[in-house]
Inverse folding.
């Protein structure tokens, strides 16, 4: 009995349970919606994977990278080069893994340089990276396809997946549906890994380095190595996102990796709440589905299509500024703050009914759940659990 | 040889613009310890304002003056309305805020002015001057660019060196606490610093736009190049920013001319990394320890 409760209480078991539930929800959602929505959901998954990596880097390790669009480009181009035509012999899993490894390698290079920089210097250097990388695709026209880019041939769904889909939903599996399923599986897998990593000793070291590098060094943490490892993990996520993006949009072109993409990733992370994976997912959802909605409003208000399309960045840019000014915990922080306050108020009311004098804090919220504190500065807001317990 | 001279001259002209842009970044960095990544869209907005004025039938010079004034006002609004509220709240917050402003200004300009390329007039010829029967790559507008940046730099030096206001601004940047105790209105000096920087940034925007096409994202690469130039000069010294801008302009002109124009951004990244690794305090740094 005790063993079972310990198993349920362990972080890994909890994360696995959430991941399994998530997978069920994803499969159900993907079978229920239209092919266009599947495409959108797949795009959202790509954005969310990269945002998840970025939120770990920025929220937990305190390194702000504006170059994650470039790291995504590395993943996308690797996948595109490995999938030249329909008869490509490399299995898809291997293609994705190679893309992730390439992005991780590039991330390690950038990370070694980045570990020595901080704040605006790091932002500027990674910004330069984001602007420089698309230029490479233009310069090496023969191999990287120049402005038009390289078309990607997504492999058809394997037999077992088609059978399983038919068995479960009595309908055929479309290629779009298969890719969307792949993208969401990658999302769930990478979030599972990221969540476990950030709850582990590695994650605690990242936080310790973020909060106070000197104290972390005194405690025996090699600050540089910790920073580089955070950057590599984050780059791996960006690579996976890029690889999926190649399959989803079926094209690797420099036009997809402008500065705007890197800024969108930052926006997703900030909107959702720095340092929280749920926040990254929320932010990615917002940035995928908000534009359509806002653009429609703009069109109804009499703007032409081009101008209406610019309303979405205007809205999320404004929200981003407001979030930093008013609620550095992001959307997720606001929601959780409200829930925590309500729970605390209810607990307080219950206690005053019992006329109890105890003023213990709410036992329902253990410290490692308070990733974000909506009232505080995000550097200290994201978990303050710095030392191993 | 002729190509060499022409490349160098072209680099000198664009280098002057980078210098102006780097100067704008340095002014803000000195007064508020923030790297203003929104500098490029701010300059873009004021250039569009100038174009609107010129399109309304006024002369180039009225548009020019209006844009500079708009820059002054926009900078003050940004500091007063937004940036002031994150002063001292962690450097990542300030950086993210300027990025948010980047997105907002960009989108706002595209909504208001449209998202297509529009040509911007130049007050002087944009064809090379003839020297001894040969055309060199120094245009009338190029000469104007160099003179305009030099004049603005001279005015700034005069302001900081010889006026009471400049002394107060320097004091506020050097040590806000002591300056405040001595009666300097530090917040006002910060606003003024942002306003002046934004004015210099608008000048850079106008000079880049002259005789070519403008678009809501035409300044995007300049934000990187301006930052590299500013870091080359140490991010703290206005003189360093100018020298860094010129150096960067000439170097990139050679990269573009001899290796390929797509590699300019990559070369800028390399220069930035080398400077940050080898001389993090900029090319003029003394041996003082410095954390980047």
């Amino acid at each position: 009995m005790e063993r079972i409760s310990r198993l349920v209480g362990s972080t890994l078991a909890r994360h696995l349970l959430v991941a399994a539930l998530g997978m069920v929800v994803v499969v159900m959602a993907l079978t229920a919606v239209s092919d266009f929505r599947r495409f959108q959901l797949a795009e959202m998954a790509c954005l969310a994977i990269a945002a998840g990596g970025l939120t770990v880097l920025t929220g937990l390790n305190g390194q702000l990278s504006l170059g994650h669009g470039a790291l995504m480009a590395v993943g996308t181009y690797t996948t595109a080069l490995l999938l030249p035509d329909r008869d490509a012999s490399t299995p898809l899993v291997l293609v994705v893994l190679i893309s992730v490894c390439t992005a991780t390698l590039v991330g390690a290079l950038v990370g070694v340089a980045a570990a020595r920089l901080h704040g605006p210097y790091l932002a500027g250097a990674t910004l330069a990276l984001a602007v420089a990388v698309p230029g490479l695709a233009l310069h090496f026209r023969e191999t990287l396809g120049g402005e038009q880019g390289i078309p990607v041939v997504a492999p058809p769904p394997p037999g077992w997946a088609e059978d399983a889909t038919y068995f479960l939903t009595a309908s055929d599996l479309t290629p779009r549906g298969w890719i969307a399923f792949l993208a969401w599986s990658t999302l769930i897998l990478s979030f599972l890994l990221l969540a476990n990593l950030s709850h582990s000793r590695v994650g605690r070291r990242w936080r310790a380095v973020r909060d106070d590098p000197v104290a972390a060094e005194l405690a025996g943490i090699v600050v540089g190595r910790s920073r580089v490892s955070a950057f590599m993990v984050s780059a791996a996520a960006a690579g996976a996102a890029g690889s999926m993006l190649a399959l989803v949009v079926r094209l690797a072109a420099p036009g997809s990796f402008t500065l705007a993409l890197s800024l969108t990733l930052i926006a997703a992370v900030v909107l959702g709440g720095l340092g929280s994976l749920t926040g990254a997912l929320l932010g990615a959802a917002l940035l995928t589905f908000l534009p359509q909605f806002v653009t429609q409003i703009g069109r109804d208000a009499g703007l032409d299509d081009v101008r209406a399309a610019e309303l979405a960045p205007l809205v999320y840019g404004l929200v981003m500024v407001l979030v930093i000014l008013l609620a550095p915990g992001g959307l997720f922080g606001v929601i959780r703050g409200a829930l925590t306050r309500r729970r605390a108020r209810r607990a307080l009311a219950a206690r005053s009914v019992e006329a109890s004098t105890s003023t213990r804090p709410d036992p329902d919220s253990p410290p490692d759940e308070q990733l974000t504190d909506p009232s505080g500065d995000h550097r200290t807001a994201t978990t303050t659990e710095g030392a191993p317990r | 040889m002729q190509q060499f001279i022409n490349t160098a001259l072209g680099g000198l002209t664009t280098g002057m613009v980078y210098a102006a842009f780097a100067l704008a970044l340095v002014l803000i960095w000195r007064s508020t310890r923030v790297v203003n990544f929104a500098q490029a869209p701010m300059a873009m907005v004021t250039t569009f304002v100038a174009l609107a004025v010129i399109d309304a039938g006024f002369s180039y010079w009225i548009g020019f003056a209006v844009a500079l004034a708009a820059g002054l006002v926009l900078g003050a609004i940004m500091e007063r309305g937004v940036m002031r509220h994150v002063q001292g709240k962690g450097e990542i917050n300030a950086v993210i805020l300027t990025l948010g402003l980047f997105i907002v200004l960009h989108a706002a300009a595209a909504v208001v002015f449209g998202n297509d390329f529009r040509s911007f007039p130049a007050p002087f010829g944009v064809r090379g001057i003839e020297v001894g029967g040969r055309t060199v790559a120094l245009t009338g507008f190029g000469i104007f660019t160099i003179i305009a940046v030099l004049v603005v730099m001279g005015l700034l030096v005069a302001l900081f060196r010889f006026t009471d206001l400049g002394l107060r601004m320097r004091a506020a940047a050097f040590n806000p606490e002591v300056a405040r105790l001595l009666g300097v209105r530090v917040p006002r000096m910060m606003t003024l610093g942002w306003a002046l920087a934004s004015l210099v940034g608008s000048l850079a925007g106008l000079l880049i736009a002259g005789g070519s096409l403008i678009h809501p994202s035409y300044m995007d690469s300049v934000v990187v190049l301006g930052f590299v130039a500013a870091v080359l000069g140490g991010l703290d010294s206005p003189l360093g920013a100018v020298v860094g801008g010129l150096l960067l302009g000439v170097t990139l002109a050679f990269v573009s001319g001899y290796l390929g124009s797509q590699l300019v951004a990559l070369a800028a990244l390399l220069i930035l990394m080398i400077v940050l690794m080898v001389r993090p305090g900029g090319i003029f740094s003394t041996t003082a320890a410095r954390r980047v």
Notes: The mean pLDDT of chain A is 83. Chain A touches chain B through 49 residues (CB under 8 Å). The radius of gyration of chain A is 22 Å.
